[in-house]
Input
Amino acid sequence: MRQIIEELNAAFRPPRPVYLALHHDGGYYHLRWRAPGETGGRRFVELCTSDAGRQVLQALPSTVRGVVLSFEHWRLDLNLASSLCRHEWRRLRDYMAKLDALEACQRKFPE
Output
C-alpha cells in the first residue's frame, strides 16, 4: 500500500491533483483519496462514486485523469485484498479457538 502512495507521489509533483492516504479503521488498512487542500483534515473522497470526487476528476486534463483512474483501479484492488486478508485472518483465528476448545473437551470427556 505504501508503494502506490510512493508511485503516485513520484508521478505528480506538488501540488498533486489528489493525494492518497493510508487509513486505519477498525483493524483494517485502506487507501483513501484526499482532494487538494484536504491533506490535514479527515475528509476523504471517492473519485467515481461521489460528487466531490467526480468534480476532482472533471477538473483534471484528460491525460492526467487517465493516470489517476489507473491509480484508482490499483487502490480498489489493494483495498479488496486487504479486506479479504483481514476477514480470512479473523476466520482462521476463530477456527483455531474452536479447535482448542474441542481439544479441551476431548481431554475432559475421553472416550
The radius of gyration is 21 Å.
